Amino acid sequence: MHFTKMHGLGNDYLYVYGEVPPDVADLSRRLSDRHFGAGSDGMVYIGPSSVADFRMRIFNADGSEALMCGNGIRCVGKYVYDKGITTKTNLRIETLSGIKDVGLQVAYGRVERATVGMGRAEVGDALELGVGGTVVRGVPVSVGNPHVVLFVEDAQSAPVDSLGPRLEHHPSFPDGVNVEFAQVLSRTEVRMRVWERGSGVTMACGTGACATAAAAVREGLCQAGLPITVHLDGGDLYIRVQDDFVVTMTGPATTVYEGDVEL
Q1: In sequence order, what are the beta bridge partners of 4?
Q2: pLDDT grade for 132, boundaries at 50, 70 and 90
Q3: Considering only CA atoms, which of 64, 49, 83 is closest in space to residue 253?
Q4: Angle CA(189)–CA(190)–CA(191) in degrees, nearest 5?
Q5: The pLDDT of residue 25
Q6: Which of 114, 125, 133, 207 lies 20 to 30 Å from 171 when distance is taken between CA atoms?
Q7: Count of Cβ atoms closer than 10 Å to residue 182 Cβ
Q8: pLDDT at 254 over 90
Q9: Where does the pLDDT of residue 260 fall: very low under 50, low under 70, confident under 90, or very high at 90 and above?
Q10: What are residue 260's DSSP bridge partners?
Q11: pLDDT of residue 165
Q12: What is the secondary structure of the chain as a DSSP string?
């Protein structure tokens, strides 16, 4: 099997153009292993779509299937353009959370960045979540996949490794949830770290950055209509949340290497 390792701000996946195999869950677990496999946060399969330009399916490092991946969809745009599968710079990509519009920014014949129309974020009322005898406050957000955003004083020292997995499987989220720890720096700037459902700590999460910005606007901490810089472990994403909570995301996409593996 031929694959391309790509990342968006360090959120890395193995990208394959072709049919999803029956044993994809086992394959994703095996190849994602950072000691015995290629090493990644999961696998992304790209193929034709009957309703859009392309279709993407995302499988996490634990083998579970994700609904959407903000960093991944930017890399999908780069993949199909850089490899000459399309000449379009404005794409519609089918995901399990709907069709997303992706605008590619090209330099010297290669995609460097992409802007993704993420649709309307659904921000719920803050929840009081009991965890291990303590109560934390989290804002639930859906951007096609589920998130809960915790606003903290210091994102760098936040208990991502310990609290993240407990909230991922909290009874309030029967299907699991992505957990963001966000420190608001100004009306247009946030520092965020993430525990991703099915993958654990990752260097970046595009949908998580969108969810965080939407929650910050809803809570009156950030400004709607202006680009909000979200600083992640792997770099920066630029999120714009309109008054009606329609969200766009801009960030880079990078190819690491091509590889082949015997199955």
Answers
A1: 15, 258
A2: confident
A3: 83
A4: 135
A5: 98
A6: 207
A7: 28
A8: yes
A9: very high
A10: 2
A11: 97
A12: -EEEEEEETTEEEEEEESPPPTTHHHHHHHHH-TTTSS--SEEEEEE--SSSSEEEEEEETTSPEES--HHHHHHHHHHHHHTTS---SEEEEEETTEEEEEEEEEETTEEEEEEEEEEE-EE---EEEEETTEEEEEEEEESSSEEEEEE-S-STTS-HHHHHHHHHT-TT-TT--EEEEEEEEETTEEEEEEEETTTEEES--HHHHHHHHHHHHHTTSS-TTSEEEEEETTEEEEEEE-TT-EEEEEEE-EEEEEEE---
Q: What single letter denotes the amino acid at residue 204? A: A
Catalytic amino acids?
69, 205
Q: What is the pTM of this model?
A: 0.93
17, 78, 92, 244 from 48: Cα distances, Å: 9, 15, 11, 32
Instruction: For residue 15, list its beta bridge partners.
Output: 4, 44
CA dihedral 205, 210, 212, 214 (to 10 degrees): -170
pLDDT of residue 119: 96
Q: Can you tell me which residue has the tokens 């709907």? A: 98
